[in-house]
Amino acid sequence: MDSFATYELMTLAIDASPLTAMASIAAYVVLAVSLVYASAVDVRTRLVPLSALLASLAAWLLAVAGGAIGGGCPFLFDFGSPRLFSWAIAGVLGGAVTSGVAALCAVTLERRTGSLALGGGDVKLLFVVGLYLGPEGGIASLGIACVLALLRQVILCVADGIARIAEKRRGTPPCCIPCPKTFPVGSLHVLSNQPFPFVPFIAIAVLAVILTGGIWYG
Q: How many domains does the chain have?
């Protein structure tokens, strides 16, 4: 499946069932808006808004109903399938697997590091993502989000090292160099030792999976 797989599948869905295509487009638009909104709230409050979860879940249920009436699958992982339960169950399985793996990783990291690695809202959001993307796409989005979050931590470590070197060059004795929870990097204040918003990484990962659907659903 080539890079235009998503467009081709959408074309097939429109040709086969306009109702299914409309349900699909509406559901993914709601998912996108919900992810953007949840990202903004998570950045400010470190919380995942319940309204975003409920809106995405409601849109998924409406898409399921539209696909059932239109006779086709409204989701990326199985467009055009007339077998309702095959793709509906695949979506639920995707949500369970994605959120389950995320929760397992979070618990493991928390036991090893003693700090909260992932919040309950993030796990719930990943369940919703799995509903839309299926097992393959859900796990792929989780993996991409984790890689992006890891890159963020690497950047913070490098920035922290630069800040410490700068303090030493200004003549502050090593024993007196503070280890603040925030430190300036240019005009930004980076939170280094506090929980960071994970939803923006999930949003970027979901977009990447949707745009490269042919890789995960080939």
A: 1
Q: Take residue 41 and report the two structure tokens written for it.
A: 């709230």
Greatest alpha-carbon pair distance for the chain in Å reads 73
> Which residue matches tokens 């095959």?
86
Q: What is the pTM of this model?
A: 0.78
pLDDT in tens, 161-195: 888 887 777 765 554 445 444 444 433 344 444 56
pLDDT in tens, 99-134: 999 999 888 888 877 777 788 899 999 999 999 999
Q: Do 190 and 183 touch, CB atoms closer than 8 A?
A: yes
Task: Using CB atoms within 10 Å of the CB of residue 160, give its burial: 0 to 12 exposed, 13 to 18 middle, 19+ buried.
Answer: middle
Domain membership flag for residue 218: no
Where would I find the H helices in the chain? 5-16, 18-45, 50-70, 84-113, 120-169, 199-211, 213-216
Range of the domain at 117: 5-212
pLDDT band at 87 (very low <50, low <70, confident <90, very high): confident
Selection from 69, 185, 73, 66 nearest residue 134 by Cα:
73
Four-residue CA torsion sign, 39, 44, 46, 52: negative
Structure tokens at 154: 């690497």
Band (pLDDT 50/70/90 cuts) for residue 77 is confident
Nearest-angstrom CA–CA distance, 168 and 85: 64
Instruction: Give how far Cα 130 sits from Cα of 73, 186, 193, Å.
Output: 15, 37, 30
